[in-house]
Amino acid sequence: MAYLGGFSTMKKSVSLVLLVGGVLLLVLGIQATNSFSSDVSRFFTGSPTDKAVWMLIGGAVASVAGLAGLTMVGRKG
User: Fold this and answer.
1) Is residue 3 part of a domain?
2) Which one of 20, 44, 45, 49 has the minimum C-beta count within 10 Å?
3) Is 13 within a domain?
């Protein structure tokens, strides 16, 4: 059987990068929803800019994937 110890470390680091990137996207998305262009878009359409919404969605998905990856790394299966 091949040595798979490095795989767990790689999986953990990828999960950590996803978590950090997701949190960063969430922060940037929240800041984008409070921007002037988002206020103008909200005035005319009732919703923030598409960029802000996609950053929030991408940040949430990446954060959940990172958390799931970190909790699953220690389990065998």
Assistant:
1) no
2) 44
3) no
